[in-house]
Amino acid sequence: MHLAMLILIVTSPVAYIRSSLTALTQCFLVSVRIAVLALMFIERTVFIEVKIATKLAVRLVFFGYVCCL
Fold this sequence. Notes:
This protein has 1 helix and no strands. The protein is mainly α.
C-alpha cells in the first residue's frame, strides 16, 4: 500500500506536467489553425472582391464602348 502511494506521489508531478504540456500544445495548434483559416478567409475575400471589381470594370469599359458607338 505504501509503495503504491509512493508511486502515485512520485509520478503525479510527471503526469501533471505531461498533461499540462499536452494541453498547451493543443491550444497552440488550435490557435495556429485559427490563424491559418483566418488568413485563408481574408485571401479568399480579397480574391472575390478583385474578381467582382474586374467584372465591374470590364462591364463599364464595354458599356462605355457600346455607348460611344
